[in-house]
Amino acid sequence: MAERILVRGGKVVTPEGVFPADVLTLGERIFAVGDGLPLNMADEVIDASGCFVLPGVIDPHVHIQLDTGIYQTRDDWEVGTKAAACGGVTTVLDFATQFKGQTLEEALENRWNEIDGKAAIDYGLHVMVTDLPAGEEDEIATLSRLGAPTAKVYTTYRPNYYMDDDQLLRTFKAAAKHDVMVMVHAENDAIVSAATERLIQAGKTDLRYHGDARPMLAEQEAAHRVAFLAAEANARVYVVHNSTARTSEILAEARGKGADVIAETCPQYLILDDSLYRGEHPEWVILQPPLRPKGQGDRLWELLAQGVVSTVGTDHCDYTLEQKVATMEFPTTPGGIPGLETSLRLMYTHGVVAGRISLSKLVEVMSYNPARIFGLYPRKGTIQPGSDADIVVYDPEPEETITASRLHTIGGYTPYEGMKVKGAIKTVLSRGMPVCVNGEFTGQVGRGRYVERRIEL
């Protein structure tokens, strides 16, 4: 690996603006940023002429090698992080699941053992908290001690993950006490369960009914309740994968009254809509929450541009097509879609090129904000001296068509099949090493490191 790499002739993108500058790396860090840096300072030169130079994408919400206790994705950390690298993602934040009877530390140790020697890019972990008995809430301090200060909880998926309101409130209070942020999957379990049961009783279990089983109201009500409880507990809460505009607006209203709540959305909710459940391949879009009517995506773009929605994650799950079509009934089809490798190009095309968001906003919601919110900044999420040399050289000129056959995931499908995108990822550096060049993985499996994080509430 070259000790000093000069990314020359491009336009550096920050949340504040876009400006011509060269970027010089020294080892794993950025050494200098400036216009016209001398060639003799570098061992290797990357020509970024006509290209944008972006901080590596931080995906705060992925599920690589997922085991839900019911379904398991068939990828592993080598597959998942190679796909991420080829999509311009240089850091992923995944999950360690606390299965019943485990301590939080055991959950983290088990996940570290699964990942060991396989990650090609850097990673952090959240912990899915499923077993926090009354009187033992202070165990959550373990998460801050081990550099994983984000807990994930669910208001649905009874009985595996579900937390009732008392459990939520206890968890929020303990998290606030110990500088832990709580991520919440917000859907009202009673509404979802009842809607699902009505469809099953009516014999309507085809995939086309998936969206009907999880109404928009279920997400909106749960977000409202979660925001209220978060305010009562003085906790910082991050509500994942907002699929409806009203969800994000509810969180914004709560922020206006003093609640510390943050909204995330995903490319699928911005770009796709529920008409696909009646299309040729509904199996490609079975996920929770489901896709929504088209107008929801349009409004979510507006909220993203306004800063009401702070981040874009993918909720990436690499189930195989075989798993997706096994029953062709929504109650027994694993939910989740691949998204790591396509997110940057999709967001650039449908956001920046379409005039919905600026290039600086793209960097803000995909790099800077995730780094700041999750305790990675300024090590990651920015292009400045001293930060990790996580860099994407993005050529805005090519036009490409997304197709599963060219992706590095193993699922065998993409919900974006045949979709045209503008621009191509020319080079990706992860801590100074080229991990993707012209769409091909060039990195080193096992080089990815666990990144300890700290959050101050």
What share of residues is helical? 25-40%
Query: How would you classify the quaternary structure?
Result: single chain
Total number of helical segments? Answer: 12
Distance between the termini: 39 Å
Structural class: alpha/beta
Output the CATH homologous superfamily of one domain: Metal-dependent hydrolases
Average predicted confidence as pLDDT: 97
CATH architectural label of one domain: Alpha-Beta Barrel
Compute the CA-based radius of gyration.
21 Å
Give a written overview of the molecule.
The chain is α/β, with parallel strands linked by helices and 457 residues long. The protein has a domain at 56-373: TIM Barrel, CATH 3.20.20.140. It has helices spanning 77-86, 104-115, 141-145, 165-177, 189-201, 216-233, 245-256, 267-271, 294-306, 321-324, 343-353, 359-373, and strands at residues 4-14, 17-26, 29-34, 44-47, 52-55, 57-59, 62-63, 89-97, 122-128, 150-154, 181-185, 236-239, 260-265, 311-312, 316-317, 391-401, 420-430, 433-437, 440-441. Strands 1, 2, 3, 4, 5, 16, 17, 18 and 19 form a 9-stranded mixed sheet that branches. Strands 6-8-9-10-11-12-13-14 form an 8-stranded parallel sheet. The model has no long low-confidence stretch (mean pLDDT 97).
